[in-house]
Design a protein that fits this description.
binds zinc ion; mainly alpha; single chain; Helix Hairpins; about 130 residues
């Protein structure tokens, strides 16, 4: 399967190019930094560029709906679409986070693709009851 190869190739490439931050302490702190950077670039789409807007308020959810209907009453609170520059910045930040997650997998002798498969299997088993 080609996707299997892509994930393994990515994880191998991370192992080859990661030179300076090989300590688990460095990798864990880099994951936090990459996550903070991702949060920052998403926020900048609203506060810096303005291509996205946030409109949020108290959720009004009827008490008699089913779990399956809950989706209809919840939204992202986002309005608009990311411009090309913001999309590129968000994708770059997600890529950096994936890089350090792959690095952590390497240090812990875990396979990123196996983790994705395991998570997907769990999601399919639990369906809407995963409560994510
Ligand atoms: Zn933008």
């Amino acid at each position: 399967m080609i996707k299997d190869f892509i994930y393994d190739d990515f994880q191998n490439t991370v192992s080859e190019v990661l030179i300076c931050n090989r300590s688990v302490l460095d990798v864990l702190s880099q994951i936090q930094e990459a996550n903070a950077r991702l949060n920052r670039v998403v926020i900048r789409t609203v506060t810096g560029c303005g291509c996205l807007k946030i409109q949020a308020g108290k959720k009004e959810i009827p008490s008699d709906i089913t779990l399956a209907d809950l989706k209809k009453f919840l939204d992202s609170h986002l309005l608009g679409e990311m411009c090309e520059d913001c999309r590129d910045a968000v994708e770059t930040a997600i890529g950096r986070l994936l890089f350090y997650l792959a690095a952590l997998c390497n240090l812990l002798d875990l396979n990123l693709y196996d983790i994705l498969l395991k998570e997907q299997k769990q999601l399919k088993i639990l369906g809407i009851y995963n409560l994510a």
